[in-house]
Fold:
Amino acid sequence: MTFSYIDQRFSDIQMLRYRVSGFEFLSPQQHRFIYYLAEAALAGRDILWDQNCRFNLPVRRMLEAVYTQYQGDRTSPDFQAFLTYLRRVWFANGIHHHYGCDKFTPEFSEAWLRNVLAQIDYPIDEQLITVMFDPTIMAKRVNQTTDEDLLQTSACNYYAPEITQQMAEDYYNSIVDASDPEPIMYGLNSRLEVQNSQIIESVYRVGGLYGTAISKICYWLQLAIQEAENDSQREVLRTLIEFYHTGDLHTFDRYTIQWLQCTAGDIDFTNGFTEVYGDPLGIKASWEGFVNFRDNKASERTLRLSENAQWFEDHSPVDARFKKAECRGINAKVIVAATLGGDLYPASAIGINLPNSNWIRQTYGSKSVTIGNLTYAYKQAAKGNSFLEEFVLDATTLEMLHRYDDACDDLHTDLHECLGHGSGQLLPNVSPDALKSYGSTIEEARADLFALYYIADPKMLELALVPDLDAWKAQYYSYMLNGLMTQLVRIEPGKEIEEAHMRNRALIAHWLLAHYGGAMELVQQSNNTYLKIHDYELLRQGVGQLLAEVQRIKSEGDLQAATILVEQYGVKVDVTLHQEMLRRYKTLDIAPYKGFINPRVCPIYKDGVLVDATIEYGESYDEQMLRYSRDYGCLE
Ligand code: ZN
Structure:
C-alpha cells in the first residue's frame, strides 16, 4: 500500500497522516518502550472528553451506537449529515469545535435521530438530545468575553455547574500563598465542586476523579519502566506514577524537574495534565499524551540555537531589567512523533515548550521541541494547492515565496519554542497570573516576536540556519498575510477572534500595520485585498519595538496595557475583509484545519512475551476512532 499524507476530508477538516521516520533504526527494546508509552498516551483519552464537556462521553456512546448499528440507507442525506457530525465530534474530542469552541450544529433532524435510536433500541436521553440540538445550551466550550461570567458561560467541565467565576476566584485567592517563591500549580489537576456549601477540589488521581482511566495509564507506565533506556527515565516514570496515585502537586513539581533534567536517551514523552487553554480562567489543565524520539540529524539545528541562548538574550531589544542574566538549560531538539493522545490528538501542536511552572522554568530551564515529521507532513499535504497564487498579488513576492518554500517555517518554530518562551524574566513580586485571561495571548506574542526578530538577524546565516540573508522576508510576508487576512477563514461569520495563538498573530500584524504603515499596506485590486510589504527592514524594527513592549507588559504584569493591546489589535474582525476571505478561500477548497490519524504501534509477542513492535499505517479515521472508544473507553 502506498503511503499518502492526505486522507479524508469532512467539514472544515482535512485529515493527514504522518510517518514515524527512523523508527526502523531504533532497537527492539526501544520499540517496546515506545509501545508501552503509546498505550499510556491513549489510555487517558476519555479524561479529555469529559473535561471538555460533561455530556461528551454519553453523546459519543450514542452516536457510535448509531454508526455501528444503523441498518437504513447509509447514502441518505440524513445519514451523511450524521457522519459529518460524528467525525467532527471525534475530531474535537467533544461537541464543541476544537479551535473556535462553538458547539456544532447537527445538519440532520432531531426527528431522524429519534427514529434511528428507536430502531436500534437505544434508550433516549432527553437531556442529551437537548444539549445536541438546542443552540442556546452549552453554546461555547471556553468563553473569553470579558464582562461575562466566564464559568457560567463556558461548557467545559472543570467547575461544577453552580460555581461562578467569582466563587472560583475567591477560592483560589484564599488558598494561594503569594509569598511562596516556589508555588505549586494550584488547581491544575482537579475539578472544583461544592459540598455542604463548601468549595472542594475533586482531584484527578487513582481512586479519585478519573481514577479508572488514570489506573490504566499507570499500568502501562509501570510496564514502560522495565524497557526504559536509562535510570533517569525510570525515575521520571516512577515519580509520575506516584503523582497519579496521590494527586499531590508538590510531587508533580518534583516529577517536572526530573523530566526536565532527563535528557539522556532518544525517547521522550509527555503524559498528564498539561495545558490550560481549555479553562477560561487558565488554571486547570487538560490531559494529553505524547510519545516521541529524537531526530538526531535535525536536532543539530536546535542545538546551535540553544548553545547561543545567552547571546540571543543579551542582544534582544528588550529593557535590561527584563532579561535573564543567565539563560539556563534550554534543551531543544527536533523530534519524531510516534503517538499523539489526549489534547494533542487529532489536532496537534508542531512545537512544544514545557514545563508551564514559572519558577521551575526560571530555576531549571525548559524543554523545547519541534515535531519534524508533523511539519513535514503539513508541507507535503500543502503541495499543489494554489493558495499563494490566490492571495499574493505581485510576481516578485510570489517568486520569493516559492523560492524559499517555507525554508524558515521550522526555524520560526524552533526560535519560538526554544528561545522565545524561554527568554525574559518577571520582575520580583510580579505574579505569573497577573495578566489573567490575556496571559496566554501575551505569552504567545512574546515568543512569536522573539522568533520574528531573530529570524531576520544576520546571526542566522552565521549559524548556517538560513540559506541567505533574504529568506526571512518570505517568513515575514507569510506571517503578516496570515495575521492580517488569511487566518480569518478559521472564524465563523459574526464571531470575533478568541483562540490565544490566533489573537497573538492578529495582534502582531495589526499593531505593525497601524504603527508602521510605511512598511506595509493592504491594497485593493479587482475587488480583492492584497498585502504589500514595502520595507522589510522597517518592519523588523517594528517587531523589535513591539517585542520590547510586550516583554515589559509580561515582566511588570501590566494587565491594563495587556487588555488594551489585545482588545485593540487581537480580537476584532473586519466584517468585509472576513467575508472576502471566506469567499476566496472557498474557491480554493482548502480545509482551514488539519489533524492526524495516528499510525498504529503494533506489539509483537513471542510465547506470550513482548519482543518487539512495528508501525502500521493502514487504519482509516473511522476505524481508529471506533477502536479507541472500544479499547480505551473506560469512563462513564
Ligand atoms: Zn508558543
Summary: Residues 344 and 525 are 40 Å apart (CA to CA). The pocket of zinc ion is lined by residues 416, 421, 444, 447 (CB under 6 Å). The mean pLDDT is 95.
